[in-house]
Amino acid sequence: MDRLTIATRGSQLALAQAQWVAGRLAELNPGLMVELNIIKTTGDKILDVPLAQVGGKGLFVKEIEDALLMGRAGLAVHSMKDVPSDLPAGLMLAAVTSREDARDVLITRRGLGLETVPEDGRVGTSSLRRQAQLLALRPDLVMVPLRGNVETRLRKLVDDHLDAVVLAAAGLNRLGLKDVKAFALEPSLMLPAVGQGALGLECREDDQEVRQLVKALNHPQTAQAVAAERGFLARLEGGCQVPIAGYAVLEKGVVVFKGLVASLDGRLIVRGEGLAPPDQARAMGAAVAEEVLARGGREILTQVYGEGPA
C-alpha cells in the first residue's frame, strides 16, 4: 500500500488525533502517502441543542463510517468515547491506541478544585454522565448545557459567566494546552466515559492491507481495558441520553473494571465492579452491567428511555 485516506471530523482535536495517527503510520511505513478526508458529522452540525436531546447513537461517527463503507476512506480515527458499542456490518476496530489521561478535569475561574466553586455555581458541561456525578457531589450546582469544541468551551467559561467547565484531560493534552489550569477529577470522584482517552482506528473488515498497516498502533493493555468498558456499555444499550460511566485498568495481568448508571439529578447511582483475565474482559463488563441492572439500573434506564434493555 502506498496511499491511505483517513476520515476524520474537522475539529482541532479530531485533526490533531488524525494527524498523530497519520504521522505514526508514515513513520513506520516509509513512502506511505497519508491524506485526510474531513467530514462534518451530525454531532458537528447541531450545536445549539444538548446531545442528549438530539438522540440516537453515533452522532459523531455515522457519516465517517459511511465514508469507509463507500470506499471514500480506508481508515477512520475516532475518540473511543464517541464510538457506539455495536459497529455497522462490514466494519471493525482494527486498533485501539495507547490511552491518554482518561480523567475529566474541572476548569474554574479561580483555577482550583470543586470546593472553590461557589454555592449555586454555574457549571458548563454537555455530558449527562458528568452532570449526574457532579450533582451527586454538589447538589447545589446549576448545570449549564455547553456544546462546541475545546476552545469554544474554554472561551464560554468567561463569555457565559460560568463558574466552571468540565472537559476531558486527554483533549487538553492532545491540543498542547498545558497552560490551562485544570483540576483533575480522580475516577473515585468522577468515573470517566467508556473509552475516554483512547483512539479507535476503524476500517472495513475485508481490507487486509489496512488492518495489517494499523496493527502496530494497537496497544493491547488499552484494548483489553476498553473491551471491558464496551462490554458494559453494550449490555446497557447506552447512549448519550443516560448517565453511564465505565473505566477499566490492567493490574498485574488482570482487568479491573468499575461502572455505574445514574439518574439525571445524581440522587441515585448504581455502581458495579468486576475483574477478569484479559481474554474475558468484554464478557466481564457485560456481567457487571447485568448486576447493575438487577440492583436498580434497569429502573433508571426505564425512567430515561421509557423502557430499559431486556
Name the CATH superfamily classification of the largest domain: Periplasmic binding protein-like II
CATH architecture classification of the largest domain: 3-Layer(aba) Sandwich
- Tell me about the biggest sheet? 5 strands, mixed
CATH topology name of the largest domain, in short, is D-Maltodextrin-Binding Protein, domain 2
Summarize the structure.
This protein has 310 residues and is an alpha/beta fold.
Kindly describe this structure.
The structure is a single chain. By secondary structure, this protein is α/β, with parallel strands linked by helices. It has 3 domains: 1-99 and 198-218, 3-Layer(aba) Sandwich (D-Maltodextrin-Binding Protein, domain 2); 104-185, Periplasmic binding protein-like II (D-Maltodextrin-Binding Protein, domain 2), CATH 3.40.190; 219-304, Double Stranded RNA Binding Domain. The protein is built from 10 helices and 13 strands. The protein has helices at residues 12-28, 42-45, 51-54, 62-69, 128-137, 150-159, 169-174, 208-214, 220-236, 281-305, and strands at residues 3-8, 33-38, 75-79, 91-96, 104-108, 122-125, 142-145, 164-168, 183-185, 199-204, 244-251, 254-262, 269-276. The strands form 3 sheets. It has a 5-stranded mixed β-sheet, with helices on both faces. Strands 7-6-8-5-9 form a 5-stranded mixed β-sheet, sandwiched between helices. Strands 11-12-13 form a 3-stranded antiparallel β-sheet. The longest helix is centred in the C-terminal third of the chain and has 25 residues, at 281-305.
